Amino acid sequence: MGPICSTLSGLYGRRGWVTLGACAFLLFVLVPLGNLAVPEGSMFHISIYWVTLIGKIMCYAMVALAMDLIWGYCGILSLGHGLFFALGGYAMGMYLMRQIGREGQYKMDMPDFMVFLDWKEFPWQWWNSDQFWWAMLLTVAVPGLLAFVFGFFAFRSRIKGVYFSIITQALTYAAMLLFFRNETGFGGNNGFTDFKRILGIAITTAETRVALFTITAAALIGTLLMARYIVTSKLGRILAAIRDAESRVMFCGYNTVNYKLFIWTLSAVICGIAGALYVPQVGIINPGEMSPANSIEIAIWVAVGGRGTLVGAIVGAGAVNGAKSFFTQAAPEYWLYVLGFLFIIVTLFMPRGIVGLYAQLRDQWARRSAS
Prior knowledge:
Layout: H1 3-11, H2 14-36, H3 48-72, H4 81-100, H5 112-116, H6 132-156, H7 161-180, E1 192-193, E2 197-198, E3 201-202, H8 206-231, H9 234-251, H10 256-282, E4 284-285, H11 292-305, H12 311-330, H13 335-349, H14 353-370
Helix pairs in contact: 2-8, 3-8, 3-10, 3-11, 3-12, 4-6, 4-10, 6-10, 8-10, 11-12, 11-14, 12-14
């Protein structure tokens, strides 16, 4: 058995790989065929609405995985991950706005909001924004650099616990207020929308939507495998030790700042990539994505699914956002009450989340069967 096979076999057991393969078959084969090959009148047809909705939830699942890496395995609760998600979205949004060209309302080369504000040239942050490779670089570099600088000073100052959470919440709130201002050059409160093309291809066609869906699915599975590799390695064991007793890890000779800074920056980069995949599928990005409430909701996804499990983060993101999609259509005024009630139930009766509850019931069933 080669080194790659031995590494992969160490990530999951037989049942885990079968489950992952079934999910991959569903996302890469059944959903695309259900949309592109099955006629619209058929009961097996999967509409563009569902392709977009599932794609959006997969982006959220990537963010939940990023949160689980730092909170579930390293004990760092961030209430500002919505900022990194939004920054990745804005990096992609600038490129998509440049792709509109002269098809905007004012028939000008500049985005409509710049023409409305009587701007004569692009601001400095829009430099090279018409290049896809530059957008991809910004998607990774901007959230990663911000997280690195912020984490460097925060972790070196031994800021932890609720104080760290409050500071991250203040950071995302300050960024939201900044992006709301028209003079920053990011569209103000309206943000970016009305996208036309990506890489010269119409963004609203079914083929493009399915392509974005499959790319998002690949990114989600890749993120899951990478996170699983980290938490099952020596690095993962050190992160868990930092979570449980950081002072003891320091006494053993480890520089905990470097480990925390690495996983914190990686988590931000994952959020940025998720944001870049989110924007072309949903069709809009605005400062509301940076609101502290969104970052708090990310933590709720992980708590509901099961902190420190990775799979629980995906399950929680899917369950909460699936319920949100239903309630915001059926009874939008009650959604926040439902979300609060759900969080209370999980905190009091399901501290290990949905995945933890499933594992507990499975173990009880196994013991009953053995006896």
